[in-house]
Amino acid sequence: MAWLHTHDMRTIVDTSGTPLAHALAARPLLVNPSLEEAEKLLGRPLPDTASVVAAAHELQERGAAFVVISRGEDGAIGLDAEGAWEARPPAVAACSTVGSGDSMVAALAIAFNEGLPFAEGLRLGSTDGAATAMTHGTQLRDPLEVERLLGAVVVRKLEPLFGGAPHERTPE
Question: Considering the entire predicted model, what is its pTM?
Answer without folding.
Answer: 0.82
